[in-house]
Design a protein that fits this description.
mainly alpha, Hypothetical Protein Yqey, Chain: A, domain1, Arc Repressor Mutant, subunit A, 2 domains, 7 helices
Length: 151
């Protein structure tokens, strides 16, 4: 069962259970996936690859994290809780994220492969690192560790 089928099934379950947060979140995810399919459509129907679907979910998770940060800054704890709840649901569909040690190991391999030695090489390092770590780690965290290693 692919992710879109899983979301459709989970939507039905959320409706039966009257789980408002899960229902709201899954509907939002399905809408974002449908939007991406329409964007990718070229003279007919488009089907997203699993990687593209996960990229949509990661983008949705990032939006929730950004919103949480803004709500915290504004002192809106009620909205932070709502976003946290949605983020937890989205993350349940994403593959497990790597820890800092695993990210550091991959970045050290990338730095060795690219011959990077300073912050000037950051672009090359990040390009290769993002390809290798796509879906496995948050871009912001990869960037922070890469800066630490190159700095």
């Amino acid at each position: 069962m692919d992710l879109t089928e899983q979301l459709a099934e989970d939507l039905k379950q959320a409706m039966k259970a009257k789980d408002a947060a899960r229902l709201r979140t899954i509907r939002s995810l399905r809408a974002a996936i449908k939007e991406k399919e329409i964007e990718e459509r070229h003279g007919g129907e488009a089907h997203l690859t699993e990687a593209q679907t996960f990229a949509v979910l990661q983008k949705q998770a990032k939006q929730r994290r950004d919103a949480m940060a803004q709500y915290k800054e504004a002192g809106r704890d009620d909205l932070v809780g709502k976003e946290r709840e949605e983020l937890d649901i989205i993350e349940s569909y994403l593959p497990g994220q790597l820890d800092d040690a695993a990210i550091r190991t991959v970045l050290q391999e990338v730095i060795a492969a690219t011959g990077a030695s300073s912050m000037r090489d950051m672009g090359a390092v990040m390009g290769m690192a993002m390809q290798r770590l796509q879906g496995k780690a948050e871009g912001r965290r990869i960037n922070e560790i890469a800066r630490e290693l190159l700095g």
